[in-house]
Amino acid sequence: MQETSLSLLKRIADDGRDEDWQRLIEIYRPFMFQRISTYPLLVHQAEDIVQEILVVLVRELPGFQRQRIGSFRNFLRNIVLNQLRYAMRRLKKTPLVAGQFDKLSEQIEQLSDPNSQMTAEFDRQHDRSVFRHAANIVKRDVQPGTWQAFQKHAIEGQDAEEVARQLDVSVNVVLLAKSRLTRRIREEISGLVD
Questions:
Q1: Has this prediction a pTM greater than 0.70?
Q2: Domain count, the chain
C-alpha cells in the first residue's frame, strides 16, 4: 500500500518519481480522453491531443505553484484549451461541413471563460473523474470487504447498521472503513480536487 502523506502534485514537484507520474497519468488520461471525445470533429484526434496535453503537463507541472482553490484544475483546463486550439488550426486545413468548424471553435473558446457553462461542466467532470479514478487506486490497496462496506455506506449512502447487517460485520467496521478510505481518497486527490 502506498502512503500519500504529501499530495501527488507536491511529490511530483519535489522529486518526480516515475510511479507518481504514472499515477497522475492513470488519473487524468481517461478524463482528458472523455473530454476531447465530446467534440465530434476531434474524436479521431482524441488520443493524439491527449498525448500532447500530457507532454505539456510533464514539462510544465514541476513549475506549477498552487495559488488558490481550483488552481490546478484551471492550470489543466488552460493546457487542454491550448491543445484544442492547436487541433482546431490543424482541422481548419481539412474540408468541413459548413458551420461545424465555427460551432466547434465557439464551444472550445467557451472554456476560456471561467464563468461559462462549458467551464462549469469541465470542472464537474474533472472532479467526478478524478474522484472515480483515485477511488479505484485506493480500492486496489484494500480488502474487498473493506471496500464493499465503504462503497455501500459512503458512496451509495446506505445506513451503517444496514450495511453491517448485510456484510455480517459490526457497525464499527463499517464506520472505520468509511473513515479510513475517505481519508485515503482525499490524500490521493489533494490539490487535484478542492
A1: yes
A2: 1
Give residue 41's domain range.
Answer: 8-142
In angstroms, the CA 26 to CA 103 distance is: 31
HSE, CB side, 13 Å, CA atoms: give it for residue 144.
1
β-sheet bridge partners, residue 190:
193
How far apart are the C-alpha atoms of 130 and 185, rounded to whole Å?
10
Note the pLDDT tens digit of each residue in 124-181. Answer: 998 888 888 889 889 999 999 999 999 999 999 999 999 999 999 999 999 999 999 9
- Compute the distance between CA of residue 48 and CA of residue 52 in angstroms, rounded to an integer: 6
Amino acid symbol at 140 = R
Whether 49 and 36 have beta carbons less than 8 Å apart is answered as yes
63 touches 72 (CB < 8 A): no
Is 77 part of any domain? yes
Smallest CA-to-CA distance from 40 within 112, 91, 81, 93 is with: 91
pLDDT in tens, 28-47: 899 999 999 988 888 899 99
Cβ neighbour number for residue 97 with a 10 Å cutoff: 7
C-alpha cell at 59: 514539462
Strand partners, 193: 190
